[in-house]
Design brief:
Elements: E1 12-13, H1 21-28, E2 34-39, E3 59-64, H2 70-81, H3 90-107, H4 112-127, E4 130-134, E5 143-148, E6 160-164, H5 170-175, E7 180-183, H6 186-202, H7 207-220, H8 228-239, H9 241-244, H10 263-279, E8 281-284, H11 292-303, E9 307-311, H12 324-330, E10 336-340, H13 344-350, E11 357-361, H14 372-381, E12 385-389, H15 398-405, H16 422-433, H17 442-464, E13 465-466, H18 470-476, H19 478-483, H20 503-517, H21 540-563, H22 565-588, E14 590-593, H23 598-609, H24 628-633, E15 637-642, H25 654-659, H26 695-703, E16 738-743
């Protein structure tokens, strides 16, 4: 058999390539006045392929000849004699026919061309340009398309007939392989038109067909003209599709006895589940008192995988209601483990690969990404779903949020929509604040902070955070709260209470307040690394941290003074004890500072002052005064410093110089360690003050006001450095014994 096929004659239409029925009709219909169709099936959604070519056609008649469908049969019976015996009722037929039509329109491709074609179909039915009838006598399987011009001309354009296998549908016009033939002889056209007119006269004109088509298209199909409110409801349904989720796991059978399932908590669970699936983690940051622990337990129950819970020790007591172990046990969460924040290294040693989700309570504690604990947490969270539980995830700086985000979002390959590079995004926010001072540039600073907050909410947090306030819960879930007889306590507006002071008390209060806030008070005891006096290497973060502490102490004194004179006196007493310990440390030769263990440092210093003195050869290294765990977890280093403007005249002696670890000449100035820069005090040495009962009064006044000049030759970052031997210094009245500072 030869592989060569003869060319398809122009009269034959097979829907192969460009030889389609739709293209041939598009060429003939613009020259046509009347277009008559005899088809077995008609699909309104396929009309879009022909309506542009039918624009100039004056009359369109569609005769549906196949009547074995229940709907068509019922319509014909009703049209015959109005009888519905043995057939569905009129209402049932209209409902069924409308359902079939609606199904067709729903399944149709959602394009503008199809919608326009459907609307043209309805428009032409209303205007009378298009008519639809059903043939009632017998089944007709023929498909015939007759095109008649306004002024037929023999041998030129008398009319055309196309007959074959194609129905008036998208598939019949161009989709399926069909076999149709084009007839152009006048006698062929006249015969076909005559037979069509006979069938048309015998067909049933069922007005319900038109009414049902129009009603279905305009009110019940995707092409209906929806009201703005209906569109809004549709938008909500689509937008919150994933929020609804499968809630079968949260039915009463799986929950603890007497547990009240609240709607706002349940909604938070499915919002969190969606965020977890999309971004690998999220913040659960409802305000205090809304049940974040219970929301987390419901989420763990819904997720179903093994969970690791990391929480502060105070929230891990199994006997305490509301603790993580107690709540997860009550909810029967399978395969969970609760561990303390301080035992992350043990968790890694035991293995974390079998956990699928990690819940981190008080996640704001991990806001710094440069600590060893953060590094351990990063290793634990890698490849797992991370749920950060904190009512205050953002405390001070943008890095608070950024560090926590990096536990589940890659810094340079984020999955947050429109924000691939988180690192660059947060750099931009930081740069916006760079160079702005909170007080000096208050207006610009506030504007920059507000802009950063807006961008952070809209570009990051709305995708990764569940957070509601009590007011929002009451507003949107008030009905559910009332139903379950739950209400939040009402907080009354503050009522001013005025304290009336007599003239003497008022003067004391005013003078004390002015002293506390005076520029002469530098709160130097809390700023030993002040760059004005300390010239060694230092981290800006450490300096800023000490400035913040000094400011906090000033505010604390003001608050205590405003509270009561008694509270102020008690606070002063504690401050004086703290300063006396620091002054004693100066005398002993070492001053200890610590960013993490300031309270413990004072505690150990207090213990050290109560131990008997011993020769310097037998004295333990100052580093041993720190707790063992703090020495292991923090980088420590020792630096020699000189106390020259401390605020009192040192009454040194050879023995005190020896205890300080140095020998001195009575007239020689102190020698600087190799590599250190020279130092010139910025203020003269204060007059001598003997250590007597007046020292307490002096301490709070002078130790707050005079900064300690510090200079160093060591590197702050060295984790293994030991105390450096003290340089020589004089023991005259104008100089002090040399010191060493251990920075923990």
């Amino acid at each position: 058999m030869s592989d060569n096929h003869p060319p398809t004659p122009k009269k034959f239409l097979t829907n192969q390539g460009e030889n389609t029925l739709s293209k041939r009709l598009e060429k003939i219909l613009p020259l046509t006045q009347d277009f008559d169709c005899l088809v077995g099936y008609f699909f309104i959604s396929g009309f879009f392929r022909l309506y542009p070519a039918l624009q100039l056609v004056k009359n369109v008649r569609i005769l549906i000849g196949l009547k074995n469908e229940e709907v068509v049969h019922g319509l014909i019976q009703i049209a015959k004699d109005g009888s519905s015996e043995g057939t569905p009722s009129t209402a049932e037929i209209k409902t069924t026919f409308g359902g079939m039509l609606r199904k067709e329109l729903v399944q149709a491709e959602d394009t503008l061309a199809i919608e326009t074609g459907v609307r043209k179909f309805i428009e032409w039915i209303r205007s009378g340009k298009l008519e639809v009838k059903l043939y009632r006598e017998q089944n007709i399987h023929a498909k015939v398309y007759i095109m008649t011009p306004e002024h037929p001309v023999s041998d030129v354009n008398h009319g055309y007939v196309i007959t074959g296998s194609s129905n008036l549908s998208h598939s019949g016009l161009e989709g399926n392989l069909e076999f149709n033939v084009l007839l152009a002889e006048p006698e062929e056209h006249d015969y076909a038109l005559h037979r069509f007119n006979e069938l048309w006269e015998q067909a049933v004109d069922v007005k319900d067909v038109h009414d049902t088509i129009i009603n279905t298209v305009e009110n019940e199909s995707p092409f209906a003209c929806f009201t703005p409110y209906e569109l809004y409801l549709k938008f909500l349904a689509e937008y919150f599709r994933d929020y609804r989720g499968d809630r079968s796991k949260l039915n009463a059978d799986n929950l603890p006895q007497n547990f009240r399932k609240l709607q706002y908590q349940e909604d938070a669970v499915f919002t969190a589940q969606r965020m977890l699936k999309a971004y690998g983690g999220l913040f659960i940051s409802d305000v205090v008192g809304l049940g974040k622990t219970y929301i987390s337990a419901l989420l763990a129950l819904q997720l179903g995988g093994r969970c690791l819970v990391i929480a502060p020790p105070s929230l891990l007591d199994e006997n305490s209601p509301g603790s993580w172990p107690r709540v997860f046990r009550d909810f029967c969460i399978p395969g969970h483990q609760c561990v303390s924040i301080g035992k992350l290294d043990e968790v890694i040693e035991q293995g974390v690969e079998f956990y699928k989700y990690v819940f981190i309570d008080e996640s704001h504690r991990f806001k710094g990404d440069s600590t060893q604990r953060y590094e351990l947490l990063t290793r634990i969270c890698q490849g797992k779903g991370v749920i950060l539980v904190s009512a205050t995830p953002y405390n001070n700086t943008l890095d608070d949020i950024y560090s926590q985000l990096k536990l589940f979002q890659p810094a340079r390959n984020s999955t947050i929509p429109g924000l691939r590079n988180l690192e660059a995004f947060f750099d931009k926010l930081r740069n916006r604040l760079k160079g702005l001072h909170r007080l000096d540039d208050a207006e610009d600073y506030v504007a920059a902070v507000e802009q950063n907050a807006h961008e952070l909410r809209e570009r990051v947090l709305k995708y990764t955070m569940v957070r509601r306030t009590r007011r929002e819960v009451e507003e949107f879930y008030g009905d559910d709260l009332k139903k379950q007889k739950i209400w939040f306590p009402k907080v009354s507006d503050p009522v001013p209470l005025l304290y009336l002071l007599n003239r003497t008390e008022s003067a004391v209060f005013t003078d004390t307040l002015e002293s506390i806030t005076s520029a002469d008070f530098h709160y130097a005891r809390y700023q030993p690394l002040n760059p004005e006096y300390y010239t060694g290497p230092i981290e800006e973060r450490a300096v800023q941290g000490q400035r913040n502490i000094a400011t906090f102490m000033k505010i604390l004194l003001i608050k205590r003074l405003e509270s009561s004179f008694h509270a102020f006196q008690e606070t002063l007493a504690r401050f004086i004890k703290s300063h006396e310990l620091v002054l004693q440390a100066f005398d002993d030769g070492f001053v200890y500072t610590s960013r993490k263990h300031s309270n413990k440092v004072l505690e150990f210093m207090r213990k050290a002052t109560t131990t008997p003195s011993m020769p310097s050869s037998r004295r333990r290294k100052p580093r041993s005064l720190l707790p063992r765990n703090s020495r292991r977890s923090s980088a420590t280093t020792s630096h020699p410093i000189w106390r020259r403007c401390v605020g009192f005249k040192c009454r040194g002696s050879p023995s005190s110089a020896i205890r300080s670890g140095s020998s001195s000449s009575a007239n020689s100035p102190p020698r600087s360690p190799k590599g250190s820069s020279s130092f010139s005090p910025s203020s003269p040495t204060p007059p001598a003050i003997s250590r007597s009962a007046s020292r307490r009064r002096w301490t709070i006044r002078r130790c707050f006001s005079v900064p300690h000049p510090v200079r160093s030759s060591g590197a702050l970052s060295s984790p293994t450095s030991t105390p450096i031997s003290n340089p020589r210094a004089t023991t005259t009245a104008s100089s002090s014994p040399p010191m060493s500072c251990l920075k923990a």
